[in-house]
Amino acid sequence: MSSKYNNVLEMVGNTPVLKINNIDTGKCNLYVKMESLNPFGSIKDRVGLKMIEDAETQGLIKEGSTIIESTAGNTGLGLALAAKLKGYNLILVIPDKMSEEKIMHLEAMGVEIIMTRSDVENGHPEHYQSIAEKLLESTPNSFFANQFENQSNPKVHFETTGPEIWSQMEGEIDAFVAGVGTGGTISGVGEFLKSKNPDIKIVIADPVGSVIADAVNNGEFKYDGGSWYVEGIGEDYIPGNLNLDIIDEGIYVSDKEAFHMIDLLLQKEGILAGSSCGTLVDAAVKWCKAQTEPKTVVTLVCDTGNKYLSKAFNKDWIKKNIN
Ligand code: PMP
Question: What gap in Å lies between CA 70 and CA 9, rounded to an integer?
Fold first, then answer.
């Protein structure tokens, strides 16, 4: 890959893979793919760009169109990057638990933001997805990106993230661990890796309180109103873009374990990772330690910790909220 670019959009993807050296991973080798190095700092830069490119190709947006999306912030930033450079309007509906840094970055992009409640279930009229759908009806010439159902989301991971991992690892990979927000990452990467080698295990890292790991491990789930502070992953339902058929196992990770792990990543590995990465790496380490034979495992640094300096890396916030 060249390191001289003509446009920032060319810099989306092709992120490096890094070995974890100083955290105990039992008999296994653990690698993280540094999605934090995308231009706007997350794996969702890939998805924002791809959803806009595909909508253009399919004639769903044209000059003057308004793109609407419900997002934890990172998809909004990915969309903002591509929409800005391509000249589309963008309105984002964002749950109010998301970090100030992400909101400030979006505001700096000149994006219209509608804040909504984080404490309501999917299907509730004030849920961020319901509000986005209503907005769509009242906005002329609008397009709902809808990352939870839009096929461009898993597709970009099937076409780019998965093949990058396979080639960077030279086919030497026994398990891939990721969280589920929309399910796009784990489904796209998982389907690609299993197409190369069906023995590769696809493992979900899930915040305690989310229903996804239960759905994988028990085949059924019941949302009991639980909540978690890690951002971008964990759900109270099964999103349309999650392909449960290719998932082998779900691992539960508490907020305490996740926030401890991102601190460890910073102190021991020099990796400034976002909160969901704490969940992913903690789950990957648990999977590694359960192995009796040496295995090679890959997970993700989904976004940069720069987005969470006021929370995850703020001792007062941690003391007040994580126990
Ligand atoms: N980590 C972070 C920080 C995210 O913003 C997201 C997306 N919401 C994810 C992980 C989960 O990715 P996906 O939507 O592909 O399941």
Answer: 22
